[in-house]
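fyi for ur records
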Amino acid sequence: MKDDPIITEIRDIRHKLSEKFGHDPKLLVKFLQEQEKSHADRLVHSRTEPQKTEYLDDMEVLLALRQAKCAEEHEPTVGIDELRRRLGL
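which gave:
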């Protein structure tokens, strides 16, 4: 695999930082946390709430399954209103 100059540069910087703190991870983490605080305006934060996605409701799933079964058996399909009526909803 060919060495990527950007990766090499990042590894060199990472090693120099580690060396600066005597390869002590606690000191390195403390330094990085201080850097985060002093440069908070440059950081990008992830969302605190997960992004909402749309899901099919149970009735739509039941309808899709029913329509697939009807198609296999060559029966006429039913609509969502008819399916709700049959299920007593």
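The chain has two domains: 5-41, 58-87. thats all i got for now
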